[in-house]
Design a protein that fits this description.
- The structure holds three protein chains of three kinds.
- Chain A is of the alpha/beta class.
- Chain A is built from nine helices and ten strands.
- In chain A, α8 links the parallel β7 and β8.
- In chain A, α3 crosses α9 and α7 crosses α8.
- The longest helix of chain A is centred in the first third of the chain and has 16 residues.
- Chain B has 13 helices and eleven strands.
- By secondary structure, chain C is mostly beta strands.
- Chain C folds into two domains: 165 residues, no CATH class; 164 residues, no CATH class.
- In chain C, the strands form six sheets. Chain C has a five-stranded antiparallel beta sheet, with no helix packed on it. A five-stranded antiparallel beta sheet of chain C has the order 18-17-16-19-20, with no helix packed on it. A three-stranded antiparallel beta sheet of chain C has the order 4-3-5, with helices on one face.
- Chains in contact: A-B, A-C, B-C.
- At the A-C interface, α1, α4 and α5 of A face β6, β7, β8 and β12 of C.
- β5 of chain B pairs antiparallel with β16 of chain C.
- Chain B: This is Thiolase domain-containing protein.
- Chain A: This is Thiolase domain-containing protein.
């Protein structure tokens, strides 16, 4: 029996395409305070905290330790960390809330993409004997999939370009049951969440499919109802066509109304932002059912899918009452990223 | 705590300075297969995989779980990668247990590893930003001042650390997986070893090891099935908790951190433990530098504040004592960093399963047997613990 | 201990904002000296031994597929592979490109120094493809399905880079004799993988202001306006409260040594051994600062010792924490332990 848990608050930084001198920790602290303020929850009321980050982004170990020093983890908190996109931290937190003894969780992720060598860092995440020594990078890997899709008849550009390196962070609060209803006017209920990984090597995979995305979508129940908005972790344009197919998204579904990862890609937060944006469509009354997706690994090796729904049977606002009517569906206001700084 | 959860399989590699015969995948695979065999299962029976290790800079492979998916039979399954500094092995076990306690999965494979011989941990840990000075060399350089403060605060005699160093190495002689085997170890040998980070001597530190450990964690149904199939009983999780606190907080007690005390209190509450020294039959506690035994004896409530060293001095924590600490030889005898925490958790489980072999503490395998597994990390700020028992909670 | 009056000079806002010092970026290199040493295990080792001999080997799965490069475990079933001699077979050298992507600007660590293609390449006789570079001269010369063959380096050591690259055509190319004398039957068991990542890091707004103070021989800290605690080095956020620390204070350069270590382990970038690292609680601060202690024989260093900063002469100062060389005893009476114990 799955316990009802909802995304009740979401905040993200004003992502930047240049290094403004903020530390990873600087990025996180204001967002944690924002989601606490949005829910009215006190720090001490948070039952579990989980974050996602990657040490290689700034090239020193333990970036999550510095972040912990900014979120007011005192008295000591029940806390954990994944060296993955924070979408997986949200998964871990959602699992923890299923135990039934805690009602709230704080999730955050952060990354500085502007200070390092993304092609180099991504290469080091591939098979250390056969792939990493060649330094193919994430763009090289994506290009192999784009070409394979093009050859298979997908209408995609076979020469992918990477999203601009981005600094940024995101934070989410999850709450269960009545607590969610108390702290949020329109909780975005997690109706299904699942993630699956597939083999690492590209040479044994069919790059025109994403078996793990399809599997996660099936287990999360994407097909059980209409999907108005989807936020997909598409760092490359061609991935949208493949994911639309594998997730079974209807043609009418609006993908990445927020601008998506192509407009802001603070790695380790990008996936969590997808969940936050999909939840925000429900928070603002713009949608009743949305889907979020996060990915990692070369050519979508690892996929997470989350289905979010508005309160079932929630009374729709009176159409005549324009003051409280839901906002019409529209892209979320998204801060225009700063222009890249001149190289010095 | 949610649904019941049990350890139904444990697998360890031999811990060595260098496992030159295997790849990274080969190393983790060895532990995983041994855990599966112990549980009477195969990869096909596993619902979910959780991998833990310390900073990726130790091996220079970023998020290695992506590459390890094939070796761990993870294709088509959920896979998580935990990193909570030195406590990561313990946290990884708890993240896996959480999936069972949540009712999400029946059988979860948790694996932790480090292959330190691929580089040099002191190099990785001393990698700092270009704007700060390099004043700390390795973990010993970090923890030595806190040990000095403990000695001053408690008035402990200077030989307590050496006693722990000897005791854990003697225990390691009974453990076939242990890395350091020093049959001639005695106080004089420890005392004569080089002073690395005064007050820490060479033989009062942990070694640098290659190794991996794995456990299969099961639901009540899976535990009963595994016990019936293998004849080996499960270790039931009676209490489990994680606690973290800021590293650089004014007024934080780095010697006796509140996060450690709070974490233990949470585990004890769940497990019904009010007198840890009497109720636990054995404890596997993360002691990478010998002085951390008396420090954690106090932090975990086995001794009053300032009196931990007296327990060590009395022999209570020795293999034959009334509360053996680290009968496996502990981190002082084997230290594949990212795995070291999970080894503590796994060894605690083996004690209550009656599977600890020559270092079995008899009382731990009796019907009321209860054992503690503990890990800590960062600047003594991340804690993960569990209490496991013979009886179903 | 008795709190000396803090020499508080009122302050501007701490916390994130645009970095006022655009010239503060520093290069940070993450490179393990000599490269990572990776033992290969028998399967990868056998493939690399084959490459050194100028042969491409594949491994057979239980259902008869031939995988190149050989993986230690079947990606789908996780079964161990390559345990028996008869599981191994030579493939190619001629091969087919199954997908590809063009690289206009090769990196120094790429296999080729001119524009080339990454491709998945299926050698004849294999059922999977390996990733490598194709030297086709131009993007127009690349096509999915094209036939290629490997060319080989003369200085083969047992590495994926022993394959120089693939080139168009059936081949085969000559395999140059090994430049170095090697035992023909000395199997490859270890590879050395250099990896170098470069970063351009900024110290961050708060650290910048700290360094600015250092340039003037001043030690600056921040005070949390919620709990009143004074932090040095300064913090953008209060670790206990998770709120911005907004007040700057100047601290005296005197304090008490709360604890220390005598370091005898040498390391690149660290002071010459033996050196003493210690925690000094500056007068008026609420947290001890990690510093060097010197100008005193190591045997004479004591907990509770009163110390004062020793600065680089004014004329030689730079914007660096290194302006503060170390702390040395003042000669004042020691402070009793119980007066600073809570700051350990």
């Amino acid at each position: 029996m799955t316990r009802d848990v909802a995304v009740v608050a979401f905040a993200q930084s004003e992502h930047s395409f240049s290094d403004l001198g903020w530390t990873e920790a600087d990025l996180v602290m204001p967002l944690v305070n924002q989601v606490l303020a949005a829910t009215g929850l006190r720090r001490s009321e948070i039952g579990f905290t989980c974050s996602g980050s990657n040490d290689y982004l700034v090239g020193t170990p333990f970036s999550f330790v510095a972040a912990l020093d900014t979120i007011g983890a005192w008295p000591p908190i029940s806390e954990s960390h994944v060296e993955q996109d924070a979408a997986w931290a949200l998964y871990e937190a959602w699992i923890r809330l299923q135990h039934g003894d805690l009602d709230t969780a704080l999730v955050y992720g952060f990354g500085k993409g502007t200070v390092g060598d993304h092609a180099g860092i991504s290469s080091l995440s591939y098979d250390p004997y056969y792939l990493a020594p060649l330094m193919p990078g994430d763009v090289g890997m994506a290009g192999l999939q784009a070409r394979a899709l093009k050859d298979a008849g997908f209408a995609v550009d076979p020469d992918p370009t990477p999203p601009p390196p981005t600094d940024g962070a995101a934070a989410v609060i999850l709450a269960a049951g009545d607590v969610a209803r108390r702290v949020c006017a329109r909780p975005a209920w997690i109706r299904g969440i699942d993630h699956r990984i597939e083999p690492h090597g590209l040479g044994t995979r069919d790059l025109t499919r994403s078996a793990s995305a399809r599997q996660a979508a099936g287990n999360a129940g994407v097909g059980a109802g209409p999907v108005e908005f989807a936020e997909l972790h598409t760092r490359f344009e061609h991935e949208e066509a493949l994911l639309r197919q594998e997730l079974g998204l209807p043609d009418a579904c609006v993908v990445n109304a927020s601008g998506g990862p192509r407009k802001a890609d603070p790695v380790m937060a990008t996936g969590l932002i997808r969940i936050g944006e999909a939840a925000a469509r429900i928070h603002d009354g713009g949608a009743r059912r949305t889907v979020a997706h996060a990915a990692s690994g070369p050519c979508l090796q690892h996929n997470l899918v989350c289905v979010l729904e508005a309160e079932p049977g929630a009374v729709e606002p009176e159409p005549s009452d324009t003051a409280s009517a839901p906002e019409p569906a529209r892209p979320a206001p998204h801060p225009e990223p700063a222009r890249p700084a001149e190289e010095d | 705590m949610g649904n019941r959860c049990a350890v139904i399989g444990v697998g360890q590699t031999e811990y060595r300075a260098k496992r030159a015969d295997v790849s990274l995948a080969g190393l983790v695979r060895e532990a995983a297969l041994r855990a599966l065999e112990d549980a009477g299962l195969t990869f096909a029976d596993i619902d979910s995989v959780v991998v833990g290790k310390a900073p990726d800079m130790f091996e220079g492979v970023v998020t290695p779980e992506l590459y390890l998916a094939d070796a761990l039979g993870a294709a088509g399954k959920p896979m998580l990668r935990v990193h909570t500094a030195g406590s990561v092995g313990g946290s990884t076990a708890l993240v896996g247990a959480s999936q069972v306690q949540a009712g999400r999965h029946d059988r979860v494979l948790v694996v932790a590893f480090e292959k330190q011989s691929e580089s040099n941990a002191t190099w990785a840990l001393s990698t700092h930003s270009p704007f700060s000075a390099s004043l700390v060399v390795g973990a010993g350089g970090y923890f030595a001042p806190y040990i000095r403060a403990y000695i001053r605060r408690s008035g402990a005699p200077g030989n307590i650390g050496m006693m722990v160093a000897v005791k854990d190495r003697i225990n390691a002689l009974r453990n076939p997986y242990a890395h350091l085997k020093l049959p001639d170890i005695d106080l004089a040998m420890v005392e004569k070893s080089m002073m690395l980070w005064d007050p820490i001597r060479y033989l009062e530190t942990c070694p640098s090891s290659d190794g991996a450990v794995a456990m299969v964690l099961g639901s009540e149904r899976a535990a009963e099935a595994a016990a019936a199939a293998t004849g080996r009983r499960p270790a039931w999780v009676h209490g489990a908790a994680m606690r973290s606190e800021p590293m650089g907080m004014a007024g934080r007690d780095s010697v006796d951190p509140r996060a450690g005390r709070d974490c233990a209190a949470d585990v004890y509450r769940q497990a019904g433990v009010t007198e840890p020294r009497r109720q636990f039959a054995a404890a596997e506690v993360y002691v990478p530098f010998s002085w951390y035994e008396p420090m954690w004896l106090e932090n975990l409530g086995f001794a009053d504040k300032g009196a931990g060293w007296k327990l060590t001095e009395s022999g209570a924590t020795a293999f034959e004592g009334d509360i053996p600490w680290n009968p496996s030889g502990g981190v002082l005898s084997s230290n594949p960093i990212g795995a070291s925490g999970m080894i503590r958790f796994a060894e605690a489980a083996q004690q209550v399963r009656g599977q600890a072999g020559e270092h079995q503490v008899p009382a731990a395998a009796e019907s009321a047997g209860l054992a503690l597994g503990h890990a800590y990390g960062g600047g003594s700020q991340f804690f993960a613990m569990w209490a496991v028992g013979v009886a179903k909670p | 201990m008795s709190r000396q009056a803090t020499q508080a000079t009122q302050a501007t806002q701490a916390g994130p904002g645009p970095d006022p010092n655009p010239d503060t970026r520093a290069r940070h290199v993450l490179e393990f000296p000599g490269g990572y040493t990776r033992s290969t295990g028998p399967v990868i080792g056998r493939f690399l031994t084959g490459l050194r001999a100028g042969r491409v080997l594949g491994v057979r799965t239980a259902d008869g597929r031939v995988l190149v490069p050989p993986t230690e475990y079947d990606p789908l079933t996780a079964a161990a592979l390559g345990g028996a001699d008869e599981d191994w077979t030579e493939v190619g050298p001629a091969a087919t490109v199954t997908t590809w992507t063009w690289v206009d600007d090769p990196r120094p660590d790429h296999p080729l120094d001119r524009p080339f293609a990454w491709a998945l390449i299926r050698p004849d006789g294999a059922d999977s493809a390996l990733l490598h570079a194709v030297d086709a001269g131009s993007k127009a010369a690349m096509a999915t399905g094209m036939r290629v063959h490997p060319t080989w380096r003369a200085d083969r050591v047992g590495s994926i880079k022993d394959l120089a690259c693939f080139v168009p055509g059936e081949g085969p190319a000559e395999v140059p004799a090994l430049a170095a004398e090697r035992e023909a039957d000395d199997p490859v068991t270890m590879i050395t993988v250099p990896s170098r990542l470069e970063y351009r890091l900024r110290p961050g707004t708060v650290w910048n202001r700290f360094i600015d103070g250092m340039a003037e021989g001043r030690i600056r800290g921040t005070r949390c306006t919620t709990c009143g605690k004074v932090y040095v080095p300064p913090r953008a956020a209060c670790p206990a409260d998770g709120l911005p620390a907004t007040e700057w204070v100047d601290l005296p350069d005197t304090g008490v040594l709360t604890t220390f270590a005598v370091n005898n382990v040498p390391a690149a970038g660290a002071p010459e051994v033996p050196f003493i690292s210690g925690y000094v609680l500056l007068d008026g601060a609420d947290i001890a600062m990690l510093v060097l202690v010197s100008d005193v024989p190591w045997q004479d260093v004591r907990l509770g010792m009163r110390v004062r900063a020793v600065w680089v002469p004014e004329a030689e100062r730079t914007r660096s924490v290194k302006n503060l060389r170390w702390f040395a005893p003042t000669g004042e009476p020691d402070v009793p332990f119980d007066r600073f114990e809570e700051y350990v």
